[in-house]
């Protein structure tokens, strides 16, 4: 941003800017005059009045008269006021002149203030009006036209000059949830259950009744939903032969188990996604979820506590 500097000579600092400053605010004024920015600054640093400000902006340029590390006598809030001691003071020129000229000066000021805010990592709340410090009706023309309107001009500049955010990576389509449909045999085949999160059909089984058969399938075409492969262990018996997904298996109504023989272990795997399953022990509780498929891994290889009949099963693909 181009800033014209017409700096106050150091031998006048005792009049114009006697204190060091760490700016915390930006104060906006109107000149109540029709002079250009250069003329305003030239006049300000040329006289010996204890009246000063850092910058004047007209419709063409930004002119700085005092560095921001010195205070200015702009705000009418006394020698210790934050307006005078901690604010960057900016005069918008031509506030009694041609309205279009003034509006252009406001526009350039908004652009400049946005630049200053960004440079300092400051928020919009750092912008004050002269009126905030001393009650004086300044910046008079800006207030007439609407203070919020001016603040919005600064916001628009902030948005317009903010670097565009990094392009977001194109979101990968989430794989479709694969549903698992399953049922168990108690004194007959119970109704199908889909997953377990439907509270009405939270699991397959009836507490207190031994399960002796299981059949299950993924819902949908094998290309998308894959298929389930599973087997069961019979109480005091062994792991029975592997069974393939009820729907995808050409034999149709297959199942795992020997109907009438108590099941005490279940092992399930899926060709797509990860299958998660657990069983409920008769007169006991739900055992931990497992995801493996390994008869030799009693922790995560199968669900069940061999020797203990199962009366509930839950299956889901995650
Ligand atoms: Zn003022």
Q: Which descriptors would you attach to this protein?
A:
alpha/beta, six-stranded mixed sheet, 8 helices, 22% strand, binds zinc ion
Would you mind describing this structure in some detail?
This protein is α/β, with parallel strands linked by helices and 318 residues long. The chain has two domains: 4-161, Lysozyme-like (3-Layer(aba) Sandwich), CATH 3.40.80; 180-317, no CATH class. It is 22% helix and 22% strand. The chain is built from eight helices and 14 strands. The strands form four sheets. Strands 1-4-3-5-2-6 form a six-stranded mixed sheet. Helix 4 crosses helix 7 (147-161). The longest helix is centred in the middle third of the chain and has 22 residues, at 99-120. Residues 162-166 have low confidence and may be disordered. Bound molecules: zinc ion. Zinc ion binds next to loops. Zinc ion is lined by residues 29, 130, 138.
SSE blueprint and pairings:
Blueprint: E1 4-5, H1 13-16, E2 25-30, H2 37-46, E3 55-57, E4 62-64, H3 82-86, E5 87-92, H4 99-120, E6 127-129, H5 130-134, H6 140-145, H7 147-161, E7 180-185, E8 193-194, E9 213-218, H8 222-225, E10 228-234, E11 243-244, E12 263-270, E13 275-281, E14 310-317
Helix pairs in contact: 4-7
The structure holds zinc ion.
Residues 29, 130, 138 line the site of zinc ion.
């Amino acid at each position: 941003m181009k800033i014209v500097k017409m700096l106050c000579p150091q031998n006048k600092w005792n009049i114009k800017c006697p204190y060091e400053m760490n700016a915390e605010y930006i104060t906006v004024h109107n000149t109540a005059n029709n002079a250009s920015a250069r003329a305003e600054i030239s006049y300000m640093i040329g006289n010996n009045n204890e009246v000063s400000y850092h910058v004047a902006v007209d419709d063409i340029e930004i002119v700085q008269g005092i560095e921001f590390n010195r205070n200015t006598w702009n705000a009418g809030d006394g020698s210790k006021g934050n307006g005078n001691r901690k604010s960057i003071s900016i005069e918008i020129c031509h506030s009694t002149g041609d309205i279009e000229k003034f509006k252009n000066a406001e526009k350039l000021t908004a652009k400049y203030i946005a630049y200053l805010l960004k440079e300092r990592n400051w928020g919009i709340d750092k912008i004050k009006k002269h009126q905030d410090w001393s009650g004086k009706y300044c910046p008079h023309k800006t207030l007439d036209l609407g203070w919020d309107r001016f603040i919005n001009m600064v916001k628009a500049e902030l948005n317009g000059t903010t670097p565009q955010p990094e392009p977001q990576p194109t979101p990968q389509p989430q794989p479709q949830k694969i549903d698992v449909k399953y049922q168990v045999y108690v004194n007959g085949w119970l109704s199908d259950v889909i997953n377990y999160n439907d509270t009405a059909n939270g699991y397959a089984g009836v507490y207190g009744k031994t399960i002796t058969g299981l059949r299950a399938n993924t819902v949908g075409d094998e290309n998308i939903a894959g298929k389930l492969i599973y087997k069961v262990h019979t109480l005091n018996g062994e792991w029975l032969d592997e069974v393939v997904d009820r729907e995808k298996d050409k034999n149709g109504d297959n199942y795992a188990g020997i109907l009438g023989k108590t099941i005490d272990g279940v092992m399930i795997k899926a060709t797509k996604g990860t299958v998660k399953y657990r069983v409920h022990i008769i007169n006991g509780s739900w055992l931990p979820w497992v995801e493996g498929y390994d008869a030799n891994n009693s922790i995560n290889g199968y669900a069940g506590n061999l020797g203990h009949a199962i009366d509930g099963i839950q299956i889901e693909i995650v």
